[in-house]
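User: I'll paste a sequence; please echo it back and then give the predicted structure.

Assistant: Echoing your sequence first, then the prediction.
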Amino acid sequence: MQLATTVGERPQQPNRCKQKELEVVRYDGHRPASLGRSGRIDDGHLFAGVDDGVCCGHPSSAALNATSDYRKVKDHNSRIGVNRKNWKWFDMMDTDRQVWEEVAESMTDTSLLESMMESAVEDPSSQEETTEGFDERLSTSESLSSPSRTSTPTPPESAPSPSSAPRRIPIGKRKRGQQDVVAALAEMQAADERQQEWLERMEECRDRRFEMMLEDASEARRHEAEITRQHMEQTESFSHAFLSRLSQLVQVLSSRP
């Protein structure tokens, strides 16, 4: 059964010879007619031309031209941030496209079924949660579809294929993997020990260097004190000798008449 809903329909005027509008064509089934096998929206089937208010089952030249204009404006506005183009049908077609993408996303349940079967094989406890999520997606798709359209029965779940079943790891490979892990942990521990020893040696070298610097500083201070003491003794002896000579000279000068 084929249903057609006209978007932006205008009342026909007798003075106009031909009037072309855009409509969205829907089909009763698992997915819209404009949804391809890949799950993407086909603009050529989504926006079909209407001549004189009569619906066409296939895309007409007007629909193809409108789709081409819509794609050009959409690509231009997505590439360029400024100088955006405007078209009288752009907002309506863009809104309809977003609605159909949401419907198509909610109605493509093939990937959901595959993920549900894989999760059920890997973890049986999560099968109940996945079934609840699938029921929610089905209720969403039914609410978005037309009220007059009856809900279609869900396809029965097929048994998981042997390729999707989890592969068992042989015991030999598992043991080798455990041995590799143990060897890697032992190597990491040895590397940590070597690094700790190197840090301890560096700390000891730093302490010895600091002690040597202290000894050199104290030795320099002792040497400087010794030189100062000798200089002071020499100055003191020179002062005593000078004073003695000066006193002798004073006595000689005073003894003269």
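The radius of gyration is 49 Å. The chain has six helices and four strands.
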